[in-house]
Amino acid sequence: xxxxxxxxxxxxxxxxxxxxxxxxxxxxxxxxxxxxxxxxxxxxxxxxxxxxxxxxxxxxxxxxxxxxxxxxxxxxxxxxxxxxxxxxxxxxxxxxxxxxxxxxxxxxxxxxxxxxxxxxxxxxxxxxxxxxxxxxxxxxxxxxxxxxxxxxxxxxxxxxxxxxxxxxxxxxxxxxxxxxxxxxxxxxxxxxxxxxxxxxxxxxxxxxxxxxxxxxxxxxxxxxxxxxxxxxxxxxxxxxxxxxxxxxxxxxxxxxxxxxxxxxxxxxxxxxxxxxxxxxxxxxxxxxxxxxxxxxxxxxxxxxxxxxxxxxxxxxxxxxxxxxxxxxxxxxxxxxxxxxxxxxxxxxxxxxxxxxxxxxxxxxxxxxxxxxxxxxxxxxxxxxxxxxxxxxxxxxxxxxxxxxxxxxxxxxxxxxxxxxxxxxxxxxxxxxxxxxxxxxxxxxxxxxxxxxxxxxxxxxxxxxxxxxxxxxxxxxxxxxxxxxxxxxxxxxxxxxxxxxxxxxxxxxxxxxxxxxxxxxxxxxxxxxxxxxxxxxxxxxxxxxxxxxxxxxxxxxxxxxxxxxxxxxxxxxxxxxxxxxxxxxxxxxxxxxxxxxxxxxxxxxxxxxxxxxxxxxxxxxxxxxxxxxxxxxxxxxxxxxxxxxxxxxxxxxxxxxxxxxxxxxxxxxxxxxxxxxxxxxxxxxxxxxxxxxxxxxxxxxxxxxxxxxxxxxxxxxxxxxxxxxxxxxxxxxxxxxxxxxxxxxxxxxxxxxxxxxxxxxxxxxxxxxxxxxxxxxxxxxxxxxxxxxxxxxxxxxxxxxxxxxxxxxxxxxxxxxxxxxxxxxxxxxxxxxxxxxxxxxxxxxxxxxxxxxxxxxxxxxxxxxxxxxxxxxxxxxxxxxxxxxxxxxxxxxxxxxxxxxxxxxxxxxxxxxxx
Length: 914
Hints:
22-stranded antiparallel β-barrel, five-stranded mixed β-sheet, 5% helix
């Protein structure tokens, strides 16, 4: 995958957007330098960068080098010994596949993980997280280097730089609230970056994607500053690309082009034999000069584009047809025939700028009776985004918000009411639905003022957001020197997220509506708005875990967490409608005198322009005790059978408005506040493995799960019903709100397998394969929508990764490698009759690797979506109009990496013994 800003978001991007950015990883030459998924004894660190105790190191050093060490229970353990359903992608797999780049990549590589590619990208595991707005918390939390980083507007996934120099990534499915705290309802995703090491090494990677015209360069350097005491690791990455998508309104300008730059510095100090500290600080910034709302809408299902009339530019000048032989041809689109989704036309270029600063300090102190660990995290993320809300251009097709951004006809033949300062006296419409000026002349693009703060003719959305997250955790982990293991800990999280949103260039509402809160009081919806929202949260948690080996084959463990969440939210909505329009002056459709009652179809200046029309403030505290328990049985053949129960918890919160919505055919009032979501997760699992001669092995796991949700959080679009009493005119606002749908369940089966087989075709070759499959079914059990399925719950998913290596001797070339990964999703979501398409993806890499002096190198060709399969990622309905979002086409590129290390010869010797 390549650098990209999400192109699959509808106009709801104004309410939530995240960047989808990419990182290229180094080739597998570096993977061969550093043993993947190393036991804690090698380098004395666990997978999340925390030092293991000396006893743990001794115990883990006895494990096979293929053993994967994880921290699912906040201590170093072999994955096969943990009573949790999980998948781990090791460093070598990450590098062989070119590195993680986006949340979508994780969805492809991890069993049972689905990713929303529209607007705020985020993870869905076992149905959790399907009810979200930009202001709700994620139900699947994310940790990076031991600190929680999820949260905030556009922050329910990882950022671009999080994937850089990645060592190991872990996903644990099912409620993990007892140990990981708030929001671990569906599970937890853990990203671990390399920390500074006590030897010199470097890696430089350059890549070019021919299809995207993308250039990517990465560099990492590690060195000891003071031998055996202080180590430094620095790195940088830069990307620049043109992309697939073009805006024909601006002569083929790319609108998914962009650049990214970022750097990281890490310091690790071995202060004494028993005390060490690691500091990692990085900053990355992504810039896109032109951005599109993403989801394409059409008035005819199956047709991406439908256009009417002759296209004109913002000054009213006719635009030339691409094919003069076709009458009425729109810019870039063959009339009413389906067009290419990669050729768009819209008159608001948009922009995107995202910068993220992350700092992480980890301290480990080896005490006589336990290991004390402190993890301090800080995250500041800034978003500045604007985009075309109607997804069209003057004179062309309206693909979204037709009532707000154009005339009543399918084409925007006249544009919205001029609101930039000119011609705002008495306006009306003619029989064609065009807006007319005083004297009856239809308004044209030349009448629009496109120079003000809210230029007419460009129906645009923009958002500025800053997220600040501070976390602090302290814990004591027992030494593994007996049948009893334990840990205790406390954590704190402070979260602050101010968001400033504008929606401008919209037509005023003409038809008043009856406000249900005020009985027969008629109101007008405000369409041009400035919404300022600030969400603030503080969380305190105490947790403990204990496990005991009653016999050599039976272990019982349990965890308990107390959480205290304080949630505060404040919203102010400012009216930016310069004009107002009314259907009638008297009778049932009469409106407040404050807005002026004039002749039917007329427009007048808005007296309330620039005034605050709604205020909302909410404050709530949530307290909960979350338990988990697991019984583990070790069979005579060392296979593992386990049974577990755990709970998950997501705090409630506040919407910006309340209002009525249609649920299950009934009208329901959805309040501004919504309650916490809880999950009870039951699981039975089996983990086994087989070892053969010549380095051959097969590990597998299977689990059956059932999760019961209470107060399941879902979302709907509503018009406001609770009106600010200070607003005498009773303005109506629209927004997507969260609410508690009721009880629901999801159940299914998950299977993972990992195979390593040497001497497959030749004496010294190596074949590895990792694959997974899931089956799931869900149902809402209570409330007005009882009986329907949950969204983002697929009936079947399949994924896998295959890698083949063959040593050869051909000059500087000493190895050949081939790698591919695949993913299939079969969806039977019945929430919408349109559903989603199947997802089918196959990616491939291959090339040569070798040695020059003390340096390792790799030259690889790669292709994403190698079969060039086309499908709809999602099929939403936007304002009653069908929408479509398509996957990216095939891309082909080349990558070269070179790396070196003082310890390279020793590592090669170890590989030869595997």
